[in-house]
Amino acid sequence: MNNSISTFLQERIDAGDFPSAVYLVAEKGEIVLHEALGHSVIEPELIEAQKDTIYDLASLTKVLVTGLLCARLVENAEIDPLDKLSTYFNEFDTEKKRNVLLRNLLTHTSGFQPWVPFYLAENAPSIDSHHYMGMTNESINRFILSEIGIRTLAYPSNSKVDYSDLNFLALGFLIERIFGTSLYILSNTEYFMRLGLTRTFMGGEDSLRREIAASEKGNAFEKKTCIDLGYLKPPAYAGGTDKHFRTETIWGEVHDNNAYFMGGVAGHAGLFSTAEEVFKIAQQFLPNYTSLLKPETCKLFRTNFTAGMNEHRSFAFQLASTPDSTAGTKMSPESFGHLGFTGTSMWIDPIKERVFILLTNRTHNHSLPFVNINSVRRRFHDLAIDFLDQNS
């Protein structure tokens, strides 16, 4: 056990930031540090976190699944970041949306709203009738793409980054259309199996529940957000239950409610994995270690496509050169990373070939508001780099 990192994370567990943490630090293809702390489940039973505990990675799905598959399509010349999205989807062939490029989606410069609770729309397909685990469902795709057109104001912007789930929902649909199969099947056949991953999957897995870190009790956060943004009116939805929100502890299934509505599989959320298997996927973004991409393709992930904007973005990732990024103070500026709402993060330093993974379940056994753990992430990275520098 590395005392400085583990002691720090245990302090944050004791302070109530999150009930568990599994971290992994690697350099030049080798795992240097890997520890588990706390309890992956507090309620309804007490389960200690293990190194191979499976976490809901939330928005890490955007880079580990959707971004990686998009990069493969780019290197095979099946898509071009400068393609207009209207080339692939008629729903975007409108005056406001006709000039949205694939690059706008990949860099969050489309101008789309950050989030829309599609499951609340009056004409939304029901969860039961469209729970499509393992198969493409074009009706859901068309519905959501149409709702994006109705509910958003797209510029697109070439001056501002506005992070939005909608960008990667659309990219997920594009991937399914080009490959001709669902993200669920595609992720398994195209690289989970090829990388020998046995504890990585899309959509959750109830049979492995006791090996998965638990999430929030119900969808209280999303329900409150819906009220705050005017999608629901209090007091009718402020308490009690309704058909749109779960009430039990979310455990073994995806936390994100849009992804849950879509059967647990989407371009923006739905991936579950362990720290060690996230590391194996992370290697695919480094030219000297990738087996799924051509080495030259990995340049996409460290290239700043939003220079001069409020946030520095590469191909699907945020760059460490972004002011106040969670990379901390000591990582190379070209480092790239991503966060997950459930409390997960991954950062990769392509200069020193280092990988930093921190998995927590900050939404579990915690009343609203959840703790913003960005300062924890920064401190974790700084401590890990200090350790690597002192022992290299």
What can you tell me about this protein's structure?
- By secondary structure, this protein is an alpha+beta fold.
- Helix content is 28%, strand content 12%.
- The chain is built from ten helices and ten strands.
- A hairpin with a 4-residue loop joins strand 9 and strand 10 (354-360).
- Helix 1 runs antiparallel to helix 10 (374-391) and helix 2 crosses helix 5 (165-179).
- 48% of the residues are buried.
- Mean pLDDT is 90; it is low at 129-136.
Provide keyphrases for this structure.
seven-stranded antiparallel β-sheet, alpha+beta, 392 residues, 28% helix, 10 helices, three-stranded antiparallel β-sheet
Order of helices and strands: HEEEEHHHHHEHHEHEEEEH
Fraction in beta strands: 5-15%
Q: What's the main sheet like?
A: 7 strands, antiparallel
Quaternary class = single chain
Give start-end ranges of low-pLDDT stretches.
129-136
Alpha-carbon distance between the two ends: 17 Å
Please report the total strand number as a whole number. 10
Radius of gyration: 20 Å
Query: Rough shape?
Result: globular
